[in-house]
Amino acid sequence: MTSMRISQLAERSGVPATTLRFYESAGLLSADRTPAGYRMYGEDAVDRLAFIGAAKHLGLALEEIGELVGVWEAGACRDVKADLRPRISARLAEAEARTAELAAFTASLRGALAHLDALPDRAGRCDPECGFLAPGAGARSVSARAAGPVSASAAGPDTGQGPGSSASAPAPASGGAHGGQPVDVVLSPGRQAAGEETERWRSAPVACSLGGDGLHERTARWREAVAGATRAAVPEGLRLTLPVDRVTRIAELAAAEQECCPFFDFRLHLDGPRLHLEVRAPADGGTLLTDLFGPTD
């Protein structure tokens, strides 16, 4: 028997009303209508939303969740188990690959900082003798797109590079061990992702799967991570400038945010002691972007 309006279901389930409407449009949640047009939900909607939320936390795409909900509705637990296991195994493999990439990225950054700290403080202009500038190269940087799968590698000369990554380690100007060479790492989408997925944030639904305590916790973590940032407007978003030592925390938060709010686009750029974080969202997500990251200065 239907008994709840959308506001009541949102309060019971901890899922925002905007997300409930999106779930309905995606075919994950159904509602009856009163003669006045108000949505009405039954008690089973609470269990359904709990199931959808659990699937979202496993990293399943909405299309997969829709398929899984159909199996769950049939009522046979063994069928849900059989359907879910290969999906979790695939996500586990992806997570392990991303963990390895982030570990390599972190190690490269630590090495770059150690090399930077070891350089003498010279009064003259930076030149190739500094070791982190190459003739004609300009400022070296590390940039990352969080809008799709990424790959990273950091290798010395004569090391093969995959199609989705690039790395170079220029020889030092005046000899020295390989461990003292600066490393330039570029994180970029793989070849297939570059053509198909890098702009998926533009067409992603403006809805967040987090709710209740999860949403408050994520917001608090972002506000702590970007505290004191300098903000500037960029097309479709804003740019935050932070100390470079926050890069690992920011990268981890950006990756987590993509899981629940795929309409956000994150770009990280290292510029010496500074980290530039650019965050973009479709026009409909502008208010959410400001709520999470604050207005431009």
Architecture overview:
The structure is a single chain. The protein has 297 residues and is of the alpha+beta class. The chain has nine helices and eleven strands. The chain has helices at residues 6-13, 17-25, 44-57, 62-74, 77-118, 191-196, 212-225, 247-260, 286-293; strands spanning 2-4, 32-33, 39-42, 143-145, 150-151, 165-168, 184-189, 230-234, 237-243, 265-271, 274-280. The strands form three sheets. Strands 4-10-11-9-8 form a five-stranded antiparallel beta sheet, with helices on one face. Strands 1-3-2 form a three-stranded antiparallel beta sheet. Helix 7 (212-225) runs antiparallel to helix 8 (247-260).
Question: Strands, helices and their partners?
Answer:
Blueprint: E1 2-4, H1 6-13, H2 17-25, E2 32-33, E3 39-42, H3 44-57, H4 62-74, H5 77-118, E4 143-145, E5 150-151, E6 165-168, E7 184-189, H6 191-196, H7 212-225, E8 230-234, E9 237-243, H8 247-260, E10 265-271, E11 274-280, H9 286-293
Antiparallel strand pairs: 1-3, 2-3, 4-10, 5-7, 6-7, 8-9, 9-11, 10-11
Helix pairs in contact: 7-8
